[in-house]
Amino acid sequence: MTEPAYVSETRTAYDTVAESYAELLRDALAEDVWDRAVLGAFAELVGPGRVGDLGCGPGRLTGYLASLGLDVFGVDLSPGMIEVARRTHPRLRFEVGSMAALELADGALAGALAWYSLIHTPRADLPVLAAELARVLAPGGWLVTAFQVGDEVRRVENAYGHAVSADAHRLPVEFVSEVLSDAGLVVHARVVREPEKDYETTPQAYLTARKPGGS
Predict the structure, then answer these.
(1) Model pTM score
(2) Position 1 confidence tier, pLDDT thresholds 50, 70, 90
(3) Does residue 160 surpass a pLDDT of 80?
(4) What gap in Å lies between CA 46 and CA 142, rounded to an integer?
């Protein structure tokens, strides 16, 4: 089966920028109180069990969640990103894979992180990703996703000092909430902040959702 063009473009783009991306964002979390607050809440909510950083990039958040005591591993579409992640965090597990078809059993995860990893998928295909996230979460499991707020598709042709070619989708908060709800997840918290960094031009959203069931 031939994969969609946007998947191939996204993989190529992140392979291209992997080293520069990792270097430029290496210390970004130390300066971002909102990211740390959301990730900290996620770490407290998640019960015992495995946590997947899905679309993990070079593993910077995988490593942070591990430092908070979570049993976390990373999955990313880009082999280049996974190579950097394995080198940077040799004690953690990282695998190349697709969020649309995760090699995980039903209910395998106590928690899932989709941090700016839905943004390259067209809206029509987002329900497939949401259904897959819901499938791999155990009853009572938690999901956090982050994305740029908006209602447009931006063509990215330069990123982290490299020429690339990929689409980035800015998404309405209510739309993403509905997609997660339709997949059977219950949205518990919505956080939207104004753009703060030089490269941010839109508000940033964080949604926390839970799969019903469990204790």
Answers:
(1) 0.94
(2) low
(3) no
(4) 6
Element housing 156 (H / E): strand 152-159
- Tokens at 188, concatenated: 């518990």
Show the domains of the chain with their CATH numbers.
5-210 (3.40.50.150)
pLDDT digit string, tens, across residues 46-97: 989 999 999 999 999 999 999 999 999 999 999 999 999 999 999 999 999 9
Phi, psi of 58 (to 5 degrees): -80, 10
CB 97 within 8 A of CB 75: yes
Residue 82 CB partners (closer than 8 Å, separation 6+): 74, 76, 94, 95, 96
Pair 211, 138: CB distance under 8 Å: yes
Residue closest to 122 by CA, chosen among 2, 9, 1:
9
The residue among 148, 125, 158 whose CA lies nearest residue 13 is 158
Provide mean pLDDT across the span 12-40.
92
Residue found by looking up tokens 């994969």 in the block: 3
Rounded CA gap, 200 and 131, in Å? 29
Nearest to 86, CA basis, from 104, 73, 105: 73
> Are the beta carbons of 57 and 113 closer than 8 angstroms?
no
**204: Cβ–Cβ under 8 A, 6 or more apart, which residues?**
34, 146, 147, 148, 149, 192, 193, 195
User: Per the structure block, which two tokens stand in for 107?
Assistant: 């209910």
